[in-house]
Amino acid sequence: MATLGIFVDRQTLSYSKKLVMLMRFRDVAESLGHRSYFIFPVELKKIAKLDALLIRSRTDPLNVSYMAARMAVMHGIPVIDNPEAIRICSDKVNMYLHLMRANVPIPRTELLVRKEIFPADATAYFDQLGAPVVLKEPSTSYSNRVKKVHRVEDFLQTARAYLKMADELVVQEYIESEEDWRIGVLNGRFLFASRYVLPRESDQVQAVDSEEIPYYGIEMVSEEEVPGEAIDLAIQASQAIGSGLFSVDIKERQGKMYVIEVNDNPSLESGEEDLYPDIFERIIVGLLG
Hints:
The protein has helices spanning 10-13, 16-31, 64-74, 83-89, 92-101, 119-129, 152-162, 201-210, 228-241, 272-275, 279-288, and strands at residues 3-7, 35-39, 52-55, 79-80, 109-112, 133-136, 146-149, 169-173, 179-186, 189-197, 217-221, 245-253, 256-264. By secondary structure, it is α+β, with helices and mostly antiparallel strands. It has 3 domains: 3-81, 3-Layer(aba) Sandwich (Rossmann fold), CATH 3.40.50.20; 83-107 and 175-264, D-amino Acid Aminotransferase, Chain A, domain 1 (2-Layer Sandwich); 108-173, 2-Layer Sandwich (Dna Ligase, domain 1), CATH 3.30.1490. The strands form 3 sheets. The protein has a 5-stranded antiparallel β-sheet with strand order 11-10-9-12-13. Strands 2-1-3-4 form a 4-stranded parallel β-sheet, with helices on both faces. Strand 9 (179-186) and strand 10 form a beta hairpin. The model is unreliable at 201-210 (pLDDT under 50).
C-alpha cells in the first residue's frame, strides 16, 4: 500500500466538475489498494511523507504548486507534473524552442525580443509569415493574451501592450485548420483524444470582431477517430518537453499537422473517463507503479 497526495487549492475545489474529477482520483487510488488524501498549499510539509504526488492545481513557476513539485523532487518522490515540465510549458518561448530543437512541426514562428517595435518591424513579420499573424505573450493560458492581427497598426498596439508584461513575444503564422485536435499523453504514451469544436455562433462573432483567438469547446473522441499521424506527433511533442502528463494541441491543414502548443497539467473534466474509463487508473499506476 502506498500513499498518494493530491495537491489542490481553493480554486480547484470551487468547480463541481473539478471536484468530481478529484474524487474519482481518490476513489480509484483506494480501489487499487492505496491511501490517498488531498494536500492544500498550507500543508507542504506533508509532501515528504508521500510515495507520490499528483498536482491538480494550476501550475506556474510563480504558484505554490511549483514549490510543491520542487519539494517532491527534492525528496525523491514521483510527481506529476514535474517542475521542469511546469517551467517549460509556462513559458511559450521556452516551449517553442524545445519543439524546434526536436524538429516538431509547428507553424512558422519568430521571437520578438525588441523593447521598441516600429512599423518597419511589423511589416517585416507580415512579409515573412503572411497575414494575419498571431501574437502571443509567453505566459498565456486558455488563449488569454493571444491575438490575431491583420494590420501594422494592430500589430504595434498589441506587441507594445504585451511587451509591458514580457521581454519576448511569440510571432506565429496563422493556421486556418480543418481539424483541431487535443491529444493526451502520459509518459510518452497515448492517453486520450478530443477535438476542439467551434463556440456558439454569438461567441464566434464576438471573437472575430475582437480578433481574439476564440476559446473552443471540447468534444471527446475515440482513438480510432484520430489520425495516427496526430497521435505520433503528440507523443513526439510531449517527449520534447519531458516525461509526465500533457495535452498537445494540433491543427490539421491540407493533410499536414502542426503542433500549436503543449500543456502540462491538462484538465480532465471534459468527459475523458466516458471514452477512456481507465484514464485515472493509468495516471495513478504511472505514478505509483
